[in-house]
Automatic annotation (TrEMBL):
The keyword Transmembrane applies. It comes from Dictyobacter aurantiacus. It is found in: Endoplasmic reticulum membrane. The keyword Aminoacyl-tRNA synthetase does not apply. GO terms for molecular function: alpha-1,6-mannosyltransferase activity; GPI mannosyltransferase activity. Keywords: Endoplasmic reticulum, Glycosyltransferase, GPI-anchor biosynthesis, Membrane, Transferase, Transmembrane, Transmembrane helix. Its main location: endoplasmic reticulum. Pathway: Glycolipid biosynthesis; glycosylphosphatidylinositol-anchor biosynthesis. GO terms for biological process: GPI anchor biosynthetic process. GO terms for cellular component: mannosyltransferase complex; membrane. It is a multi-pass membrane protein. This is Glycosyltransferase RgtA/B/C/D-like domain-containing protein. The chain crosses the membrane at residues 6-23, 62-80, 86-109, 159-181, 201-223, 295-313, 325-342, 349-371.
Length: 372
């Protein structure tokens, strides 16, 4: 596992080094590229917001769309080390969170399908086409760690630990509050043990309060700085998010691809990437419902629903950023691992397709092209 983590990090570093130099420097140039240039090229899009919040604090109202835990983890050591440290700290935290998430995911996948499934379930997130977001100063890996850790704690019936991880997940992303649903389902599955004594009943049911408490704490902060406890939701249209029916995005995609966008346009390619990721994970969620623990199916269903009902209907690409959001839907990677164990050719195809797309999209990201 450690070698997989280090190897995938090295691959992203090499893509940054060779790709950036070859695409930006004059041929036969002997001028060196400063080290901080390579680092700063990873400070793109949402990463700039998390770093800015960590360094200077929130600027209401629009910054409030970004939940606080990731920036807070950067800010604590960043204030001690100085201005130079915020971006490296953000990337370090993101990568360490990924390493922790791989350990948790391996446990979940091994429990579900055995050691081979476990190995592949941690391989696929590392080579997925948008896995570079785990390397950048984004909160995807932190949310993956906390949400998967919550479900592992629930699987082990460590109720207080599950509540604590759920609280932290709710402080990382608004979707974290939905971990209360898997918690309730696991309580139902363990009802005989839970109801066996009053002490066990309290010890297993009280911790669920911690999960919405995480959201409540951020609502309290939003109310303090903006006067509206739900300001993080109110400002979503500013960032292109609108509440919609789950199927509206797919209807818009059909019109965009076959009516509005000419063949080979940038918009067409971006729409295809986001739509393919969305549709593929819906399929994996459906296929996995008979293979995985119901709690995992419930979790991925909630995550999919949350992105479908908050599509970017007002933009050309209604599923913008879904190629990033699917990284958090770890049950789909477990399902994919189960399928590939029985279909070796699929595994071989993924070993070619995923890294090739990952290298391409990573290079676009560090070059500042539109990849969010």
């Amino acid at each position: 596992m450690l070698w997989l983590f280090l190897g995938s990090r090295l691959a992203l570093i090499l893509v940054t080094y060779f790709g950036y130099i070859l695409l930006t420097q004059e041929k036969y140039s002997g001028a060196p590229v400063a080290f901080n240039t390579f680092l700063n090229n990873w400070n793109q899009w949402d990463a700039t917001r998390y770093i800015h919040i960590a360094q200077y604090g929130y600027r209401p109202p629009y910054d409030l769309a970004f939940f606080p835990l990731f920036s807070l983890l950067i800010a604590i050591p960043g204030h001690l080390l100085g201005d130079w440290s915020y971006l490296p700290l953000g990337m370090l935290i993101s990568n360490l969170a990924l390493l922790g998430a791989l350990f948790v995911l391996y446990q979940l996948a091994t429990d579900a399908g055995g050691e081979q499934v476990g190995r592949r379930a941690i391989l696929y997130p590392c080579i997925f086409p948008t896995a570079f977001f785990f390397f950048a100063a984004y909160n995807e890996s932190l949310f993956l760690l906390l949400s998967s850790a919550t479900l592992l704690a629930l699987r082990r019936q460590r109720w207080w630990l599950a509540g604590l991880f759920g609280l932290l997940a709710a402080l990382t992303r608004s979707a974290g509050v939905m971990l209360a649903a898997p918690y309730l389902y696991e309580l139902w599955l363990a009802r005989e043990s839970v109801l066996s004594s009053k002490r066990r009943l309290l010890a297993s049911t009280l911790p669920i309060v911690l999960i919405p408490l995480g959201l409540a704490l951020y609502c309290l902060y939003c109310w303090k700085v903006s006067g509206n406890p739900l300001m993080f939701a109110v400002v979503q249209p500013h960032w292109g998010r609108q509440t919609s029916w789950p199927w509206q995005g797919f209807i818009q995609v059909i019109f965009e691809l076959f009516v509005h966008q000419p063949f080979g346009s940038f918009n067409q390619v971006h729409i295809l990437l986001d739509t393919t990721a969305t549709a593929a994970f819906i399929v994996l969620a459906i296929v996995g419902r008979k293979k995985l623990r119901p709690t995992y199916t419930l979790w991925i269903a909630l995550l999919l629903l949350s992105v479908l009902v908050s599509s970017s209907i007002g933009q050309r690409d209604p599923f913008i950023s879904n190629q990033r959001f699917v990284l958090e839907m770890f049950p789909a990677f477990i399902t994919l691992a189960m399928i590939s164990v029985r279909r070796p050719r699929l595994h071989q195809a993924l070993l070619w397709i995923f890294p090739a797309l990952l290298a391409t999209l990573t290079l676009l990201f560090v070059m500042g092209r539109w990849m969010v």
